[in-house]
């Protein structure tokens, strides 16, 4: 291996939604022992970039790990999870649920996990068979031609504040009610080839992510202030929002995600079984 391979710039994907701030806030690539660049994007965009090797390590949709896990390793104990209502994974109903079950649903093109969770909810839990279409995350435009619209992240939060008269379903809450489990919507994954090529760089990035998470957990105030300033709402709202999220990836989160993968397989959304392989143990497996 040449020196240039060792010192190659590592690209890190950061989801541009507030739900990852409890891990990413304060992340400074200049503190790393390697050359790195942070690339911001919507989940679907980062899913694609990691798959194609345009970035090396990223927070991605957990569904994207389900699709391409053989090329990735999970960074331990990092995720975006919830054990119940999430407040940012919302289905806005223009028509009654009875009609939506066999109607048309527009789904945010930024999502991979939640669009497939919606299919599980509609088809497995509610016994429906709607038509789905992807669209830019704009509630008003989506509802012009559909019975319901699915939004995630900050788009969902903003829309929930402006919502005029739609019934709103929280996908995290529905999942909890039907399965008794939590759910993991995003994970941190590194491409296996990057982990093999630059193990020290990946270790340095992981250490920095854990240090940020620890700091943000100990003092949430700066994140809440930033959310009010950049997105709006009140401190109470954001404290409640972050209270509802977990950024760990322990046995409870993993059990929820495995059940989700199993249901996705049963609906033909995923092919084989998914193994949750963690860095660094599995680097050479
Ligand atoms: C909690 C959330 O989790 C997310 C949902 C994702 C998805 O549906 O693919 C991906 C990453 C996270 O942004 C959210 O978006 O609000």
Walk me through the structure.
The chain folds into two domains: 165 residues, 3-Layer(aba) Sandwich (D-Maltodextrin-Binding Protein, domain 2), CATH 3.40.190; 91 residues, Periplasmic binding protein-like II (D-Maltodextrin-Binding Protein, domain 2, 3-Layer(aba) Sandwich), CATH 3.40.190. The chain is built from 14 helices and ten strands. The chain has a five-stranded mixed sheet. The longest helix has 20 residues. The mean pLDDT is 96. The site of ligand ISJ has 17 residues, from helix 6 and strand 10.
The number of distinct structural domains comes to 2
Tell me the number of helical segments per DSSP (H or I, 4 or more residues long). Answer: 14
Instruction: Measure the end-to-end span.
Output: 19 Å
* Coarse shape: globular
The major beta sheet can be summarized as: 5 strands, mixed
Uncertain spans? none
Beta-strand segment tally: 10
Bound molecules: the ligand C=C(O[C@@H]1C=C(C(=O)O)C=C[C@H]1O)C(=O)O
Helical amount among residues, as a percent range? Answer: 40-55%
CATH superfamily of the largest domain: Periplasmic binding protein-like II
Q: Determine the CATH topology of the largest domain.
A: D-Maltodextrin-Binding Protein, domain 2
Rg: 19 Å
Q: What percent of residues are in strands? A: 15-25%
Global structural class: alpha/beta
Neighbour order of strands in the largest sheet: 2-1-3-10-4
What's the rounded overall pLDDT mean? 96
